Records
---
Amino acid sequence: MLERRELDERIAEIKNKRNQTESEIVKLAAYIIARNDFAGIPTGGSYGDAAPAPAGIQAETIIGDYGDTEFLQVIAGKDAADVWPVIAEAMESLRVMQPRFYAGILRKLNQ
């Protein structure tokens, strides 16, 4: 496991890079989450109070198998309530570091 100092160095390295790749942004989010965990900073809120699923749509709590990417394989079979706070924190990092990329994701989700 990385030490706090190493996390800070990796975060600074990626933040100071002029054009981050998508892979680097994902790593940055992971490093920030790990650093915040070291510092005892909570990672997101509770999603237990979310609105109920619309009529005709069943709310699932266990994430299914949606593909073969590394990310989809990692979250397959996990409880969505455990995954959403991590995704929300990663998205917040994207919003700050790569606002155009973040806006593009929101456009796709709103279609």
Note: Residues 22-39 form the longest helix (18 residues).
---
Amino acid sequence: MNFNEMKKEFRKTKTWKEFTKELKEERKVDALTLQKLRKGSLTHHCDLRPEMYKDLNPFKFETLNMKSHDVVHFIYNYYRKDKTVLKRLETILEKMYLFSENNSQ
């Protein structure tokens, strides 16, 4: 069984379902946006090593809405190779804010 198949099977287990339900009930919000968790929210593994997938230490998880989860994975693909990607993202966001919110020309 490959890693993706193992993940799929593990997510069907009672252990996983109970763990993720309890974590969402406890945390209640998206860790990135601090918005209320929506239907279909995800329990995100922060430890991506295959051998640690079944380690249900709550410290190793974040609760995220679907779009936040997509953003986290998208940025992580660059961040793991180049940590300055976050500074560049912040620069872009600041520029957007400056021009859009402050009505600057």
Note: The first strand starts at residue 42 and ends at 45.
